[in-house]
Design a protein that fits this description.
single chain; alpha/beta; Rossmann fold; globular; Gpn1/Npa3/XAB1
Amino acid sequence: MDPMESSGEENFEEESHKLVDSLDKLRVDASSSSNFKKKPIIIIVVGMAGSGKTSFLNRLICHTFDSKSRGYVLNLDPAVMSLPFGANIDIRDTVKYKEVMKQYNLGPNGGILTSLNLFATKFDEVVSVIEKRADQLDYVLVDTPGQIEIFTWSASGAIITEAFASTFPTIVTYVVDTPRSTSPITFMSNMLYACSILYKTRLPLVLAFNKTDVADHKFALEWMDDFEVFQAALQSDNTYTATLANSLSLALFEFYRNIRSVGVSAISGAGMDDFFKAIEASAEEYMETYKADLDKRKAEKEQFEEERRGKEMEKLRKDMENIVCNLRTL
């Protein structure tokens, strides 16, 4: 065999082994329990369009200021024209919603979704900024797009939620339009959506019945506490939707029993103390229950990644051996 060919094979084989060794050392870095911080508490505010979500968040900011709590505000709505509050981190400073619509030839909803997707690709930087200020903060208040499904059912929404939940106690607040929910059908629609968010995010959920200055939320608490009272409110309605809502009231009874509900008013500020008490209790629940579930899912994911990398490494070794054998036969 030509000495030059032999030397080339040896160099190739050496480089192959180096590549394999380098790949062996690769590991996926995930947030561990040692990196987890008990403060600040992340409050992600979601709600149907028109529920008063942004006004409610503005009231939360005012309350934290008045109570000497240290808050940090994050706006994730790229399409909002103006905000009644100042945001410490604003998606509009990073992603230009109208430019995204023009560039990708999208409609309003597609533009919001794509803007959120683009922002989510760099969300680790947002988490890093908050981590650096963690000791100086009590709450991080997060406003989401008015189109609720864009955040709750999108990949970017899941990325953002999980990024927060893996590092800080994270609570989802579902804002309900109380006057509109006096209709049993509308009330049931809201409860179904809240239930779906709870099981989608696997995070503690607080129901905030907003606009109690217009309509008292006691009727909602009664409907949640006693399904027979809710069924009585449906008696005058013989439509299919009423029959469905009647059946769902029984199915959601367990959901009602394990959820925290408070009445609030974004205008008058009523119920803010009760709301933050519910948030603190939910944060304790997060540490006791949800954090353990998160760690379990993280361990399962790491094990899956480890097995996948092992299979890829074995395949790579075989490919390298075949290449070396082929070179030797030449």
